[in-house]
Write a structure and sequence with these properties.
5-stranded parallel beta sheet; alpha/beta; Rossmann fold
Length: 268
Amino acid sequence: MHVMQFIFNSSIPRSGSELLQCLISQRKDVQASSTSPLLEYVYAASKNLACEEAMSLPEDVRRKSFYGFCREGMKGYAQESGAKKIWCDKSRGWIYYYPLLQKVLGHNPKMICMVRDLREVAASMEGLHRKNIEEGLIPDNNIITTEERVRQWIGGEPIGRALRRVKNALESHYEVLFVRYEDLCTDPAGIMAKIETYCDLSHFKYDFDKIKKSVNENEKAFGYNGVHQVAQKIRPITPKSVEILGPQITTEIYQSNLWYQTAFKYGA
């Protein structure tokens, strides 16, 4: 049995994380997951670190045995899921549990975080919302206007928590590779070469005109249909936030999240 290696894709919503999974899964040495429950399994196990049975162990044994349990469990999960030499696991939460992965793996994890202009993230979500409404999705009676939806998404789920995790990662100086979605769409070959270098992968010639998903999710679990759809070809993207959200909302998003827009060089 080969030694299992891991890459973690822990990205901002609507920022190309599924596209990255599709591209990296073209390789013969990497198996890329759909949105994965692996973190949830590890997190559930961690909730029992304070149970009586665990607390009865010497502290060093308790922690080392837990890290070993997680390490082997992660390997087993990946292998049973059909992993090749390397498993690329996708979950928004991994970036917050970077220190835990350091302990479990015994080294700094290879972690990629896709980011995108926050105005375009919100516009993409609003566009998806409108498309689902047209297709018969029952709207939320408590959140009626675009402004209300955007404020809830960015202030809470699914964007707000992801933003706070990114901020924590930056402030904690985690060795995360941040990749702008706009750059991946403009220079896919250059960005994938950068990812290869960071992840210690050999060079591979990706097909940017024939992109397909290897694993499909049950979209109903995420509230909207089309959340993880990926275009078959990579092309530079055109900003649509003003068109979809209007100038007032886009300006509010920028000014209220200046730390993020500045950190990733998104101008006004």
